[in-house]
Amino acid sequence: MPRLPGHGPLPRIHDTALDRVVETDPIALAGLYVCGITPYDATHIGHAATYIAYDTLIRLWLDAGYDVSYVQNVTDVDEPLLERAAATGVDWRVLAGEQVELFRSDMQALAVIPPDHYVAVTEMIEPVAEAVARMLETGTAYRVDEDVYFDSAAAAVASPWHLGQESGLDTATMLTLSSERGGDPERPGKRDPLDPVLWRAARPDEPRWSTVLGEGRPGWHIECSVIAQELLDIPLTVNGGASDLIFPHHEFTAGHTAALTGRDHARVYSHAGLVSYRGEKMSKSLGNLVLVSGLLADAVDPREIRLAILSKHYRSDWEWTDAVLASGVARLADWERWASAASDGEGTLRDELREILAADLDAPSALDAVDARVAAGTVPTLGDLDSIEALLGIRL
Ligand code: 5CA
Ligand code: ZN
Question: I need a surface site. Which of 18, 31, 65, 163 has the fewest CB within 10 A?
């Protein structure tokens, strides 16, 4: 059958049991979960690059005729956020609220399609506590003093997951990363030094909630495991984030979900590369940040930022420099000049971009494909401009 451009409406047919015409609904729902921000020092270029990568994936799913359900969390209770709030004398709730608003407006400026569900961990305390209580019952969790830890070895026996399944790392590497990234491998009384905390009992001056587990707050990985289970079908189609989350965060998110459901957390674990600045990973803890809001305040066009980010493959690690931004500025100017002469018609860019981007979201090659037409002086059609907007998120 010849393939026509675009997609027609879903056929509806009569159902004997219901005696009415129903939607056939043959199209699968793509379930995407991407780890959201810890709301302080948002939104830097690294964050923006990660969310633009998954925005491209969503655009391609939608273009392919799939429905998408997209969930993102907000880690609005966590050590670094509480430390920052304490250091600046701002209430942690106020700090988180302001930063979430800033993040949302930055994402909107960058034409990032918002999640269908944007969920803060503070809205999910009860389901998290109940999930941890179930793990205590099934023996995949244990107490160390008043805190609750995940029993990696027990989960490996009881579920399809085992330690290292998602990350593929050896124990020595996992131990190093665990202490660097919020774990506590040296704490006495744990069954495996790598076991992560599921529930942290109340400490003086820390936020706390009263639950079936007593007073306290959730650990980090269980947050994403439970939010994903509450709002999406498990296994997820894709679980995403940048590569700093491969271990321990996504390893144990997968472990917690497997222990709770007996199923794999996700079909695909996807990771974006890390953006660095002045030689080091752009990070809140190092303070080497370029903020999207700062660039916008300097009158940078958000499309220039988006084009600069899309010029790097989402899976590579790369450095934000003035030259990268300058490439976005120059490209937008060239493309706008080219687009101003657009004529009616469908054009052929759509199929070219679809094919390039479908192969692991190769945005740099997609930009090159447009550049080639700009350089050749090929007059674009309005269909070509629509394709650039739909698939690359750049409205000319
Ligand atoms: N709240 C947790 C995830 S549950 C967290 O990692 N928050 S974050 O604010 O540190 O990062 C938000 C998202 O941006 C995560 O997906 C993270 O992997 C990604 N990210 C952080 N730093 C960078 C960077 N330098 N380059 C690319 N992506 C980054
Ligand atoms: Zn997460």
Answer: 18
